[in-house]
Amino acid sequence: MTEWDQSPEEVQVILHHLDMCSIISWTMLSISTVAGVLRIYVRSRLLKTFGWDDGAMVLAQFFFLLCTIFVFLVNTWGTSSFNGIQTVDYDTFSWMARWAYGMYILTVISIKVSLSLFMFRIFGPHHIRERVLIHILTIVPAAIGLIALVLVNATCAVTFAPVCTWRRTFNYTSLSFSFANSLADIAFASLSFLILWRMTMTLAAKISASILFLMGSFGGLASVLRVAAYFQPGSDVLQQIRYSTWSMIEAGTCITAVCLFTLRPLFRHCTCFGSRLGTGGSSQAKLYPYRASTILNKGHVAELQTHGLTDKAGSRGSEVKEPEVVVLVAERMDSRFSRASRVEVYTLESGLGTGDLGTRGV
Fold first, then answer.
1. Largest Cα–Cα distance of the chain, in whole Å?
2. Which one, out of 3, 4, 171, 253, has a CA that is 20 to 30 A from the CA of 188?
3. What region holds the Rhodopsin domain (predicted)?
4. Is residue 136 classed as helix, strand or coil in its secondary structure?
5. What is the extent of the structural domain holding 299?
6. Quick one: residue 293, left, alpha or beta (phi over 0 = left, psi -120 to 50 = alpha)?
7. CA-to-CA dists, residue 173 to 134, 143, 180, 221, angstroms
8. 347: helix, coil or strand?
9. Which long-range contacts (CB under 8 A, 24 or more apart) does 355-358 make?
């Protein structure tokens, strides 16, 4: 039987928070998994542009799964211990706690890498300031996180040792990682709205994208609340449980948020499918003379493709719809989507896309 210094009332509060931490952890894992599966479907099936950023997000989801499992094991052991049944020795508990925290750090780093790769596909080499900022927002939290990961596994910081000279260093490092991660999440959310502001879209499209980006900004809010958990009153045990709970909320919310950034093509696909069902699929229109044309600069091609605003050549077969706006797109040569230098003609705002209406060499 394990002796604890907490009062019976505080033990009941701790048991309640342990149960809530486990429930929240599995809930966030379920939500983020659904968002991740939808992202994979959009990028691999609808856009056919599954890239390194998507692979990094899959890796983040895997780390988050392991983190959830270890957190659940730690909480289960804690519940048994506070109920007077010690089923796991302290060394095993310390090992599980180290792995749980380590998986959380790797999850956050993978999310940052995925988000930075996603941003690099939008901000080309000519966006120097944005790319420098993205590098900073990725490297700084990752470096601090790796230092914390070393301290977790190579020192007595996460143990029940009564005296540990590394514990204060670890606490400062962990707090610094939390601050850096919070600032990075807020900055990435701001960059997302900057992307939306620069995109050539209709008002309705901007509103729908704004809703997705607003939901995505909740990840930054969860990071801030996780930092606030450091300074909440209560015993060290209760404070650590609260901190772990907000860590799981932050990781799950960030994964979900980043995946939501890529789901607008799915909403467009569902809307277009519903429109075709409503019209019986018989709305065949003649190709009228072009009413307007716009030359987009090269930096917006990856942006349009990332958000599903253009279709690949031949993706609609020989079907031709009435164009609302004809856009001549000069593809970026540094884009992973580019072929040889050429100008492709797409139609936007018709909602359905017409495919490639014709090409000519540059």
1. 84
2. 171
3. 38-268
4. helix
5. 284-361
6. beta
7. 22, 11, 10, 21
8. strand
9. 355/311, 355/312, 355/313, 355/314, 355/315, 355/316, 355/317, 355/319, 356/311, 356/312, 356/313, 356/314, 357/320, 357/323, 357/326
Q: Is pLDDT larger for residue 316 or for residue 83?
A: 83
Counting the structural domains of the chain, the total is 2
Q: From CA 260, how far away is CA 253, in angstroms rounded?
A: 10
Please indicate, yes or no, whether residues 182 and 315 belong to a single structural domain of this protein: no
* Count of CB atoms situated within 10 Å of the CB of 85: 11
Q: Position 126: which residue type?
A: H
Strands 359-361 and 293-296: unpaired
Q: Is there a single domain that holds both residue 230 and residue 92?
A: yes
Would 351 be classed as within a structural domain? yes
Residue bearing tokens 């983040």: 60
pTM for the model: 0.71
User: Is residue 135 within 8 Å of 143, Cβ to Cβ?
Assistant: no
- Co-location of 293 and 263 in the same domain: no
